[in-house]
Amino acid sequence: MENAEFARLGGLHRNTFLNSPKLLDETLRFKANPLWRFAGQITGCEGYVESAAVGLLAGRFTAAGRRSETIVLPPATTAHGALLAHITGGHIETIDAGPSSFQPMNVNFGLFPPLREEPTFDRHSKLGRATAKARARKSALTRRALADLESWIAGEPPAVAAE
Question: Is the pTM value of this prediction over 0.70?
């Protein structure tokens, strides 16, 4: 490396991805040919963990389909469900919006359905009001997600329905 020459510093890459909200159904099947199911980064998720999670979902959906079982989607209140909803239903093109604005995304709290009630927080926290409020909200979203994920894995309906 001591003799390495760099033509350009930094990097630039381009992601290749499907316009999944238009092309894929809610179980990641290609609408034009339902025998094909897509997973990973090409579906419009960003990140290694997210790509693996979408691969897990595609595998579960495929296995359930092969066994003629009902495919149960993960609750939208969970990271898996929120990401799946973004990929397969987020940013659907509308007449007013023009071309699709669908872009790959990492999972984030902005994809989760809102809470029924805002959680309480310490208004006099050393962190400041905004930070304390954000932490309380994220903590409540996380608790709801974990409870709903456990229910989904167990084959039970979510404890808290998504709004």
Answer: yes
